[in-house]
């Protein structure tokens, strides 16, 4: 069990270090870094490499933003095999809708509870 925590920490930390290097060394904006990491997760899933990473690192691979790219491509490919080209469009939203909905709901609740500094 400790090995699972260790590898989740190492893999998740490595993804974060890559993002920090992109901002510090290459002077990318947070938006460019975010987009690059999402695309990297999508590419890794396209080559079938992200699911084994999730199996190995667990939350270390599912929590960082690269997992969002993985989810988009994974859902699109899964639905494309069932419904063709229409599945590509619907599959991305079907898989990621719960996470996006949760983010919107919790952001709204946070906005109701806390006062902005202004």
From TrEMBL:
Species this protein is from: Bacillus suaedaesalsae
The keyword Membrane is assigned to this record: yes
Source species, domain of life: Bacteria
Stored PANTHER family: STAGE V SPORULATION PROTEIN AC-RELATED, STAGE V SPORULATION PROTEIN AEB
Name this polypeptide is given: Stage V sporulation protein AE
TM annotation in the entry: 6-26, 38-65, 85-114
UniProt gene name: spoVAE
Keywords: Membrane, Transmembrane, Transmembrane helix
Coiled coil: none
Organism lineage: Bacteria, Bacillati, Bacillota, Bacilli, Bacillales
Record-linked InterPro entries: Spore_V_AE, SpoVA
């Amino acid at each position: 069990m400790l090995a699972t925590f260790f590898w989740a920490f190492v893999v998740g930390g490595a993804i974060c270090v890559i993002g920090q290097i992109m901002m510090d060394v290459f002077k990318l904006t947070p938006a460019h870094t975010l987009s690059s990491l999402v695309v990297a997760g999508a590419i890794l899933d396209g080559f079938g490499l992200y699911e084994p990473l999730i199996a190995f690192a667990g939350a270390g691979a599912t929590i960082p933003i690269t997992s969002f790219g993985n989810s988009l491509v994974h859902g699109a490919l899964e639905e494309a095999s069932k419904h063709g080209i229409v599945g590509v469009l619907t599959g991305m939203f079907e898989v990621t809708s719960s996470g996006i909905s949760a983010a919107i709901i919790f952001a709204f609740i946070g906005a109701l509870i806390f006062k902005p500094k202004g």
